[in-house]
Amino acid sequence: MVDTKVKLSDLNTRLDKLQRYIDKTLHVTSELFEHYKKFSARPYYPLNDGWALTRLDSGQPFFVNTEDRNITPWIIMAGHWEPNVEQVLLSYASPGMTVLDIGAHFGYYTVKLGSKIGEHGRLHAFEPNPEVNAVCLENIKINGLYSHTTLHKFALGDANTTAILTHSQSNMASANLVGEQDADYSVSVEVRRIDDVVPSDRAIDLIKLDAEGYEKRILDGAISTLSRSPQCATMIELGLERWERFAPLNELINACGGNREIYAVQRDGTIRKLPTDKLRDFLLTCSFHENYFFVARPQDVETRIGHLVCS
Question: Is 31 exposed, middle or buried (0-12, 13-18, 19+ CB in 10 A)?
Fold first, then answer.
């Protein structure tokens, strides 16, 4: 009799464990289903030549090239790219601003920022890769931003010249002028200085700069523009080894116009002030030794995005 009770107790224990496992599995399965349902319900229309049309999380229509394996999957599945960087940029930008989107790619930030600054603002987008430039142009058109947005086909640098742009076929965002990628694709492109592109009577309010290692040389070609734009803030993707190929890290603030502070962009979309002498140590803790930094006057940061500053 005692043996039977022990067996029944053991059976009940096993049944309880099984029930908890079933409950947990069904809960996880339900969550996964809701997650899948959310993404599978996103609009996606395949087109010719590897193009597709989807929507951003803001509801704006957006073309992509499906040969890209870096940014395109994020856009198709979630409708966004780098939401932490986007939060800072869109919180800072305001109607009427003049903005430069350098390294525009498919035009994700071009579309988002172009919509935020409105028809009384002015946006210059720069994308030298012909394959990607064509997609960016269509995204500008389909979102009705053409009246106040200019898309340039040339690259930017510290001299007016030509250079070879290369990228791997599966990562169109990797296109660069420093020869770091396998040359699956290469093309000769025109290179111009910002100072020769932006009208001499025009000041800049905001720059998004992601040029795959060419950032310092681009800023060196914008000295006059930045000197007449004391309010200009720069969102820059900075890689340690790439930057130090051209200059020491302590030149970052002066390269962005001087009299500014550096703020590291956190994963949650907040920003943290970072002293210049701590910049290298911070980058060594980051994946691939790179991160986005927002370089701006502290009074402008406090006024516009003070709620994003963390200690």
Answer: exposed
